[in-house]
Amino acid sequence: MILVLRALGVGDLATAVPALRGLRAGLPGRELVLAAPAWLAPLAELTGAVDRVLPTAGPHRLAWAGPPPEVAVNLHGRGPQSHRALAATRPHRLLAYRNVAAGHPGGPVWDGDEHEVRRWCRLLHAHGLPADPADLALRRPAGSGHPAGATLVHPGSKIPAKRWPAERFAALAGELTGRGHRVVLTGSAEERDLAGRVARDAGLPADAVLAGRTGLAELAALVADARLVVSGDTGIAHLATGYGTASVVLFGPVPPAHWGPPPDRPRHRVLGVTRHPGADRDWAAAGGVGIHPTLAAVGVDEVLAAVDEAEQAVRVSGATAA
Q1: Cβ-count burial of 221 within 10 angstroms (0-12 exposed, 13-18 middle, 19+ buried)?
Q2: Where in the chain is the domain with CATH 3.40.50.2000?
Q3: Nearest 5°: CA angle at 230, between 121 and 267?
Q4: pLDDT in tens, 10-22
Q5: Model pTM greater than 0.85?
Q6: Is CATH 2.60.40.3760 correct for 151-317?
Q7: Which CATH class name applies to 2-126?
């Protein structure tokens, strides 16, 4: 049995898909158990690599009552807490990044400037296992119950620094509607008020607000069938990558080189790439409060231009995901 720890969120699980598939291919015939939050189970199923989810809110809550795993894999972080949580299951073999403090002097050295997808593929490669960083596609879920072809605008983020201003999302949604897009607003239950405000300011009807009204599987189906996704650097952007749905992703403070879609896929456009070292320092010195300056510098016209580029890429590539 293989026990994998990745007790984080939607984007974190989506970026681990190539590594999970590599474990499945490199260690065939074994049950693969993913220690992750229970609400991520629908997405785990869509990876096609996970047999079951062990509900886990974090490394400090990894409750394993079974026999020692043949292999335990830390796709959660660099340790020490996550290393120690997996070591406590007494695995025959632990695949993890080097952390002497956690009693794990083996394994490759952590690179803090590495893309998240490549980080976990490199961990597997160091242990002689396959993993293709480009293998990000997700299985298509059952229908969402909503008409296909919508443009999903996702104004929220759990991290305030990653939230593009609501008034700009409203202006964008209004412009897209004027261009013939059927815009709906997605988000969590906590983001329903934000999505509602954006919809009202954009002149959209109340039923355009889907925030808080979709489960994870339904959201995945919406993305899979969507015309376009516009969001910040958050989970829905990774779903768009997984389904080859045209997307525009607004980044800041974390650069797309760490979490963005593959740069060779033109139907996924990223904004907020330009760094402003002086503004970064000022923002950090002020306590990192409010929207990050790199993201604040992105205007509505830039996003609309990126939308045009992404949709042109779709027309050029046809039905082939890119």
Answers
A1: buried
A2: 2-126, 151-317
A3: 60
A4: 999 999 999 999 9
A5: yes
A6: no
A7: alpha beta
